[in-house]
Amino acid sequence: MSDKHNIATPHERRPFQAHGHMDVVTLGDFTLGRGVFEPGWRWSNDVKPIAGTESCQTHHTGICLEGQMTVRFDDGTELDVGPGDVVDLSPGHDAWTVGDTACVFVDTGVKGYAKPA
Q1: What letters, b where the CB count within 10 A reaches 16 and e where it falls short, cover 69-103?
Q2: Sorted alphabetically, which SUPFAM superfamilies does this protein's record hold (predicted)?
Q3: Which residue segment(s) compose the domain that 62 sits in?
Q4: pLDDT tens for residues 28-51?
């Protein structure tokens, strides 16, 4: 069976505490999200209160469409992500938007992301 749904009218919008949201489309077992991480967004401030974990425990796989984000893993290493970068991010990290432009990121690892624990 084939199916489609446009991300412009997502099945679900998950607002962050402030500074953005995640639009989510689910087709069968496949879930895709488009995150809009506004300037000032930081996982530890905007999603941690929702997730209830010390660091982000989601395995993200996706592509940055615009803007910039820095990801700091629990071991202290950092990764800068910008437009066109395709990433595979292990669980156990914090992240924040860099600069005054929203970071827009398409992510396949969002089935449980930014949902209350």
Answers
A1: bebbbeeeeeeebeeeeebebeeebbbbbbeeebb
A2: RmlC-like cupins
A3: 12-107
A4: 999 999 999 999 999 999 999 999
